[in-house]
Amino acid sequence: MGILIVSTSNASATDSPGFRYGTDTSCPTVTGSAPYGNTFTNSGTSCAGTGTVSINGGTGYMGGYFGLYGGFQVLESCSDSSSSIGYDHNEAVDAETNQSDGYGFGTAMTYMGGGPGADPAYSSTYTAAQATAWGAKQGQDAYQDAKAHGVTSHYIFLDMESATHGWNEQLVGGPCSGTTNTGSCCTPAIARDVVDGFLTQVNNDGYIGGVYASYDFWNSETFSCGSCGSGSGYLPTANEFTYGGTPTQNNAGANPGNAPNNGWCEGGSSCTNQAQFFGGQNKATSTHTDAWQWCTQGGSYELGDYDQIKEANMGSS
């Protein structure tokens, strides 16, 4: 996940009431002039495809921007930290322009998180205190990145993904090695200590901490907690941005022009695919289920990633 552009949903026949829509990664880019609307183009530079996508038929206004401003690989000065950077200054400026015009929350950010196995201090005697400190170190780094980029909404999401970021495996040789050992890491409790360290630090710094993850990655791969109604995987009060869905966790190739128009559902009343949040949160009742990436590039569509945001949970600042 890189950049997220979201758009307020002014009333139209295809809107899902109470939601806004947008896209993430470094493509596509918003078109037109201020206030910026809901039509995006891709030149083929950052994503494979070229073309234009109009969410909700192009109605509405861009309501915000999430940039991937950093991560543990940048923090640890890795020579290859490309997965931790996905920031477009022009998109941030456009979102902040819209905010000044009364549309949306401006800018927010994600931070590519490293699990306990990415901590240079990880060993067989690794403690909860060390895990918490590692999460807090990343949280402080994310806060500094947010300040440097002038993040206006104060939202910072810990990006949890990838098989080489230390959530389920130790990075043998350190956080920059990319070499993993799945047999020595990591317990759910220790992984949760890292998450809590990050969120607590971000919140203590006056920002709003959240987590970006999929149901499978959080509930199954990292915490093995089933529905996660209790235990280390239970996450009832953190802001969540999820990707994938049910029954389709891998949603590459969905048509980005077909925005969900029935709550957290694609396909109208038939609801052929729906958002699936994690950590025990109920999408119908939780006040922390913020966003859903319902479409990722792939298959017939190589025009970027597209998302839905619930306005009541992550509205204008």
Can you walk me through this structure?
The chain is an alpha/beta fold and about 325 residues long. It has one domain. The chain has helices at about 70-75, 90-100, 130-150, 190-205, 215-220, and strands spanning about 5-10, 20-25, 30, 40, 50-55, 60-70, 105-110, 155-160, 170, 180, 210-215, 240-245, 265, 275, 290-295, 305-310. The strands form four sheets. It has a nine-stranded mixed β-barrel, surrounded by four helices. Strand 13 and strand 14 (about 275) form a beta hairpin. Helix 3 runs parallel beside helix 4 (about 190-205).
Brief summary:
By secondary structure, the chain is α/β, with parallel strands linked by helices.
Keywords:
317 residues, alpha/beta, nine-stranded mixed beta barrel, 5 helices, globular
Give a topology summary.
Layout: E1 4-8, E2 19-24, E3 29-30, E4 39-42, E5 51-54, E6 61-71, H1 72-75, H2 89-100, E7 107-112, H3 128-148, E8 155-159, E9 170-172, E10 179-181, H4 188-204, E11 208-214, H5 215-222, E12 239-243, E13 265-266, E14 273-274, E15 289-295, E16 305-310
Parallel strand pairs: 6-7, 7-8, 8-11, 11-12, 12-15
Antiparallel strand pairs: 1-2, 1-6, 2-16, 3-4, 4-5, 9-10, 13-14, 15-16
